[in-house]
Amino acid sequence: MAELPVLFEELEAAGGKKIGLATLNVEKSLNSLNLQMIDLLQERFSAWEEDDAIACVFLQGAGDKAFCAGGDVVALHGGSAAYGEEIPNDYCVNFFSREYALDYHMHTFKKPIILWGHGIVMGGGLGLMDAASHRVATETNRMAMPEVTIGLYPDVGGTWFLNHAPGNTGLFLGLTGANINASDAKFVGLADRLVANEYRANVLSDLQAADWSGSAESAVNKVLRHYEAQSAAQMPEPNVRPNYDLINSLCDGDSTAEICQNILDYQTEDKWLSRAIDTLRNGCPVTPHLVVAQMREGAHKGLADVFRMELTMSRHCAAKGHFKEGVRALLIDKDRNPNWQHKNIADVSEEEVAAFFEPFADDPLAHL
């Protein structure tokens, strides 16, 4: 019998308490989220939240390469429309609505959720990470919201966490899909603690031995604080902080096209910046407009309304063709030569962008 794609354990802890341990268990696909995994997590998290014996939850990914490399976009590709095609996208509606409901549940969870965000953390994995109360990044991290490469946009709460990043760093990361490391993640607000990956077992052991008679949050902080202090020398040099003023300057424009042109025109020998610029240059021309619009539209929304807005946007993405073409080129045919509907970012009209925000008759996230 095949193992489940998410494994659950309840580890005995001091004072009669338990630690709920959840492990994403699809190592071959870098623990990419599918609908079954989302449903398993939602069901177990709901039970653990109401179980008085569970002191906290610890969420990790199997293997050393990745916590979670994103959502199962190949399956979403099958439920999406090509340019000019009209097909029902029930799978996409189900996937996105249940994924966002899980993210929202984690954001509002009554107990600490420690998320061990090692290795690759992208897309849907970053959505899970941001939703946890105690987000641990490690020296092995490679994080990104690279949706510009597949004609989507930074969803899974990206509107929320990119808007909360300092200055224009969130906008820059959304536009360019730039990879960031653990030091960057803490600077932009996507990680709370930087702990070397070698201490994972120690952290779990110390959580089991912790004093849970008082504040659960304090008990978790005490453990993570100890190992963060021991890990400082292993953390990488940041890329975002040294370029903070430059990023703010490049993203200072009166239109999406102007901001993107600022970035594309910038000449640099910095490898991190160069890769980010190239990703934008080769990405979907529609995505930058969605990034700017989502951040503007979501700037003053509450978390539930952010997820409702993103569900509307994602349903339109599944119906308009850009997403299907992007996934085809990157992951299906792997020719890395997408035939985008627009040749340039400046060719996308305001009317086209506004159409991604047109509400649907139903709202699967009305219960949030």
From TrEMBL:
One MF term from GO for this chain?
3-hydroxyisobutyryl-CoA hydrolase activity
Q: Does the keyword Hydrolase apply?
A: yes
Q: Which reaction does it catalyse?
A: 3-hydroxy-2-methylpropanoyl-CoA + H2O = 3-hydroxy-2-methylpropanoate + CoA + H(+)
List GO terms (cellular component aspect): cytosol
Question: Gene3D superfamilies recorded for this chain?
Answer: 2-enoyl-CoA Hydratase, Chain A, domain 1
E.C. number, please? 3.1.2.4
| Top-level taxon of the source organism | Bacteria
| Limits of the Enoyl-CoA hydratase/isomerase domain | 20-357
**What does the entry give for GO biological process?**
L-valine catabolic process
Entry keyword annotation includes Hydrolase: yes
Question: Which UniProt keywords are given for this protein, alphabetically ordered?
Answer: Hydrolase
Q: What PANTHER family does the record tag this protein with? A: 3-HYDROXYISOBUTYRYL-COA HYDROLASE, MITOCHONDRIAL (PTHR43176:SF3), 3-HYDROXYISOBUTYRYL-COA HYDROLASE-RELATED (PTHR43176)
Output this protein's name: 3-hydroxyisobutyryl-CoA hydrolase
